[in-house]
Hints:
It is a single chain. By secondary structure, the chain is α/β, with parallel strands linked by helices. The chain has a single domain, classed as 3-Layer(aba) Sandwich (Rossmann fold), CATH 3.40.50. It has 10 helices and 10 strands. The strands form 2 sheets. The protein has an 8-stranded mixed sheet, with helices on both faces. A two-stranded antiparallel sheet has the order 7-8. Strand 9 (226-231), helix 9 (239-248) and strand 10 form a beta-alpha-beta unit. Helix 5 crosses helix 6. The longest helix has 14 residues, at 78-91. It is globular, with a radius of gyration of 18 Å. The chain starts with a strand and ends with a helix. This is Alpha/beta hydrolase. GO terms for molecular function: hydrolase activity. Keywords: Hydrolase.
Amino acid sequence: MTPRRLAFAARDGLRLSALEWPGANGRAPVLMLPGICRTALDAGAIAARLDGRRRVVALDYAGHGESARAEDARRYRPEALIRDVMDAMAALHLHGVALIGTSFGGLVAMAIGAMRPASLAAVALNDIGPRIEHVGREKVVDFIGRDHAFASSEEALTWFRANHPPMPLMDEAGWRDFVARTYAEGPDGRWHPRWDIRIGQHAVGAAAGAPPDLWPFFGGLGRLPLMLVWGEASTLLSADTVEEMRRARPDMEVVTVPGTGHAPTLAEPNVAAALDAFLEAVP
């Protein structure tokens, strides 16, 4: 099913974009929030598996994908991006959603759970929790904040495979698709990130400020069906944090992806099966 591209304005007038795959009425829609250096394109595989059984919407945050770039990089601070998501949910009539949040998208899910709990029906967190390991955060900032301006897609692929966290379950075709969703050819004929590289410092790095205590936000998800996907080799989400999350939410389903770093693609066979079953149980 081919998605349609949606465009709408943030409250400050910045143009934002999303992809929508139509689905059956009467069931909770799926809202997919990508990682901080990912875009709505990552939702395609899940939308294909759902095959119209639910409406699926995936957002491009400000400065990502088809959304506009901000003049002032402070526009990419976490609180502004979270506000954009809540405004998008209102503009696109996304109520009582099953939210799938990868990395930063999972942090947004926790924030929405605290501020607008009635807007959520279920949450799946992908390789993120209420404690973010510092070394992992530094690596993310470094990765996001560079534009290598690759001379070709092959050069981008070679660099990406060598520098991305381990993905042992991804085959050659998977890597090529992953890279195509990460970089785009620019007017100069070179391949650039599908995000504004200033996002690194302002959404995740030092300019974003010290992260708040996220455990109360995680606790705000207490009434909801909850799943955690964990890349066992993740540098952002440690085994100790996963265990603390389990103690806080014994009913939380945890799907582990051995040998995989930050963040699983959600197309891994064990993850896809568990996530599909999780969503099927949401009315």
